[in-house]
Amino acid sequence: MKAIQFHEAGGPGVLRYEEVPVPEIGPGEVLVRVRAAGINPPDWYLREGMKVMPAEMRPELEFPVIPGTDMSGVVEAVAPDVSRFAVGDEVFGMLRFPGFDGRTYAEYVAAPASDLAHKPAGLDHVRAAAAPMSVLTAWQYLIDLGHDVPSPFTGRVHRPVPITPGMSVLVNGAAGGVGHFAVQLAKWKGARVVAVASGRHEQFLRKLGADEVIDYTTTRAADVVRDVDLVIDAVGGREGARLLAVLKPGGTMLPVFFAEFDEEETARSGITVSNIQVRSSGRQLAEISPLFEDGRLHVGVDSVFPLSDAAGAHERAARGHIQGKIVLTVGG
Fold first, then answer.
1. What is d(CA 254, CA 256) in angstroms, rounded to the nearest whole number?
2. pLDDT (tens digit, 9 = 90+) per residue, 166-196?
3. What pTM was computed for the model?
4. Can you list the pairs that 242-247 forms with residues at least 24 positions away whose Cβ atoms lie under 8 Å?
5. E strand or H helix that includes residue 286
6. Helix axes 282-293, 132-142, angle to 10 degrees
7. φ/ψ bin of 273: left (φ > 0), alpha (ψ from -120 to 50), beta (otherwise)
8. Pairing mode, if any, of strands 247-255 and 272-273?
9. Residue 94's closest CA among 321, 322, 282?
10. Which domains, and CATH codes, for the chain?
């Protein structure tokens, strides 16, 4: 089969389109013919050698590496102990995360059945492949963590804050992968949603249900917003600390990327800062699927590249200002 591999860490140019063996499946696995693979930040972090992580937390990489965690495709074979799926089923999922052995940038992948769900009939393979990591991150932050594993960044187990009608939620980085799902899930639960993004994304975010859109290129959210119940920050960096000012006393800050906050400042306001490491869950994807089916959740697709041009897709990601997700198409 064809797959994308890299033999050393580096820029997009290290990604090679090569011939590799079709994987064999083991107990609890199915073989999936991949139709599309979603691109996520961990893919380029991996390609770069995980430089974003503290040195003591970086995994040892064994080259060559096939990157990717998200995919949508068709089941080609099933291990004897798997009963939930059959040959011919259309499935989607985020494979083996947290971890770096998803190997979805390929024509075939051996997938743990527990990481898969039946693909929503209302989504084509491109949109289904775009969804898993981003929608699971938003779901595990906002709706249901689904496990009791402490965050590696805080050592604490995250407890989602119940979103009730009338609550106010600010989403920073609202047009991106996690952000555009966070907007929709908060709106589904009845919140008033303030979306922070570039002004060119306003129409997109309004269609997703945002009540207010702040163009960060002209206005700082911390200058114009106050008394928000919950912030989900999908951007990180120094702006994250500034967003503490928009929270009401007792509010909650949810940084998607590792961030440090002044503990004295948060304690004075009774603000809770909580963080997760998203984890694979076919069960949760199955719970989320009806929201795709009935149109309450939509998948934004920024751009689509063939598998052979994974380098071009990573170059697009590096330019930023992404609206939704970038996806690789595989096969016909």
1. 6
2. 999 999 999 999 999 999 999 999 999 999 9
3. 0.97
4. 243/170, 243/172, 244/269, 244/271, 246/170, 246/221, 246/222, 247/271
5. helix 282-293
6. 100
7. beta
8. parallel
9. 282
10. 2-131+299-329 (3.90.180.10), 137-273 (3.40.50.720)
